[in-house]
Amino acid sequence: MSKTINATLLTHKALTTTTLCRLLKLKAKDGTIWGFANLDIDVAYDDNSGDGSIDYKSANGLVMARLATAAGTSVDNTDLSGVAADVALDGVTEEQIRAGLLDYASCWVYEVNYNDLTTGRHEVKARGNAGTVAMSGEQFRAEFRSLTQHFKQPIGEVTSITCRARFGDTRCGKSYTWVSATVTSVDGTEPNRIFTCSALAGATDEYVPGVVLITSGDNSGKEVEVEAFTTGGIIELTEGLYYTPTVGMTLDIRRDCSKVWDDTDHGCKYHWSTDWNLHFRGEPLIPLGQEGELSTPGAQL
Question: Using CB atoms within 10 A of its CB, is residue 183 exposed (0-12), middle (13-18) or buried (19+)?
């Protein structure tokens, strides 16, 4: 496999002394772009991708471990790490990392001549996705995996007892509506997980199972499942938000599906008055193996 390198950059790389540095571009799921440079100064560079000029910050630093590559369709991988910056340094902060803003972001690693930052004049050293970005002390770390990782993903479907469709997608066929609400109070014991939207109507368990999408504040864009809902607009999430909700925080909430065939309260039967069995994307009548057979090698043959 070959790649094209800008002729001017290639000439510079052949010199005895070079002024090369590496830039890491991360595009989060919400479209936010972050830039990191393994240099002692910030670098403004336009990679000619349509995202415009990006400021690659030196405040966080950038360390890229040895990139493991091989011929064929094996997955190239490496570790990307840096230091969480203070807010005053205008870099990505520990709070933003712990809130998951960089998790599963798209990654580009460029090598550029920092004395010649002409648009598009770079070498792509790696292209792929980051995994979960974790903190260890003041350092953040993300595992990089190249795009060939997608070749490892299953394409065909496997059988399952529960429905494989995502509630509301084309296979499910059911549309849903988000209901907007505003937080009026937070729980004194678990404020990150339990709060109240007093104007939100609905009987107990109206939104169980359900999903909450935060639409304002530091947690904006975060989507969390609902564990419990009580009349009066009391919402309990399955996991706590990183930033503590405040009065006035807005959110959208909707019902979800349990994906269980014979669940008359929260499954297909609940969402569809007729023909619900035509929308279920699972095989609930498949015989289940006996526990003894499953725990004894060869017993099912």
Answer: buried
Smallest Cα–Cα separation from 210: which of 234, 189, 186, 232? 234
Q: What pLDDT digit, counting tens, does each position of 195-210 carry? A: 999 999 999 999 999 9
What pLDDT sits at residue 87?
A: 42
Q: Specify the residue for token string 């994307």.
A: 281
Q: What is the DSSP letter of 93?
A: -
- Residue 233 sits in a domain whose CATH number is 2.40.10
**Residue-wise pLDDT tens digits, 210-247:** 999 999 988 888 899 999 999 999 999 999 998 899 99
Asked if residue 234 is part of any domain, the answer here is: yes
Strand pairing class (194-196; 185-186):
antiparallel
What's the whole-number average pLDDT of the chain? Answer: 81
pLDDT: is 8 or 98 the higher one?
A: 8
pTM over 0.85: no
Same domain, 200 and 259: yes
Q: Does residue 297 lie within any of the structural domains?
A: no
Which position has the token pair 């670098």? 43
CA-CA distance, 65 to 282, in Å (whole number)? Answer: 43
Q: Is the Cβ–Cβ distance between 97 and 140 less than 8 Å?
A: yes
Q: Quick check: is 298 in a domain?
A: no
- The domain in which residue 256 lies consists of 179-278
The string of pLDDT tens digits covering residues 43-58 is: 999 999 888 999 988 8
Whether residue 139 is found in the same domain as residue 190: no
The number of folded domains in the chain is 2
CB contact set of 112 (below 8 Å; sequence gap of 6+) = 9, 20, 21, 22, 23, 43, 45, 121, 122, 123
Residues in CB range of 157: below 8 A, 6 or more apart? 164
Q: Which of 258, 8, 281, 269 is nearest to 157 (CA)?
A: 281
